């Protein structure tokens, strides 16, 4: 049987993915038709980006799976019209990009780079930074992205801790898990990196209480999702100096409104959701491998647990 594959993403991505997917699926020996338009009841797989506008999957009666181009699937996970397996994106290129972004911002804080880049005031005040081994960085979320960032920071000799829902064993990383161990994870965290998904259980993971557990002057880096942080609590903690600085890549409302206090707060760096992105060359391989698996009757990779929400 020929697998009909609907590519449902921003139109400018189609000329990029079409040749890559054609090559990978042909090499994998899959019989397929790939396009941006099919009768819904003829579609076997949807390659999906949430910003494509497709919301109602009910007419897609022969669908075998929805394969997300995005790692964050919070906008589709509760869609009741979607009753088939949903796979999220785990992509080597996306992971590498996130690792680079996280390591860069951790090093910026660790080395105190801002002071010398932004203040050239003629004052000679030698105050060298400590070694990485004397700096504790906590990664909240030890999934595809968090684990890679934790390993990279550990390779640089940082004292790395991490927190997840289930137990982990990652060489060089002190791992905590479960709600009641968040306190233990945060109390030593001079720098906290949020790489949790946006679910009801993770909303406001950083709030007035948890921010107060961190060492005074701690730094926050959030490339995860906006709702992970109680914004008012963070602004208050920045104003008292409990939190020294925050670098925020993701927000409850994106684009971040021009009037939002984050834009003007002296101790906040806003970046416009650029920490990482799905890279076509590697992600097309991931998508095509899942289609091959579906056609061969093998289990899909990277399935979302709809109950857990990620
Ligand atoms: P994964 O699903 O692989 O990992 C999620 C991690 O969070 C897991 O370790 C999981 O624990 C943990 N977690 C989930 N719920 C809880 C909870 N209630 N308490 C404690 N830990 C929890 O996701 P990825 O690593 O692939 O991606 C993480 C997020 O990064 C995405 O959801 C997305 O929001 C964001 N992202 C941001 C990008 C950007 O450019 N800013 C780009 C790509 C992704 P366990 O391992 O036990 O399941």
UniProtKB/TrEMBL annotation:
Organism: Ruegeria faecimaris
One MF annotation (Gene Ontology) recorded for this entry: NAD binding
Keywords, alphabetical: NAD, Oxidoreductase, Pyruvate
InterPro entries hit by this protein: D-isomer_DH_NAD-bd, NAD(P)-bd_dom_sf
Protein name: Glyoxylate/hydroxypyruvate reductase A
Signal peptide residues on this chain, from the entry's feature table: none
CDD domains linked to this entry: GDH_like_2
Gene3D superfamilies: NAD(P)-binding Rossmann-like Domain (3.40.50.720)
Membrane-crossing segments per the record: none
Domain D-isomer specific 2-hydroxyacid dehydrogenase NAD-binding: 117-275
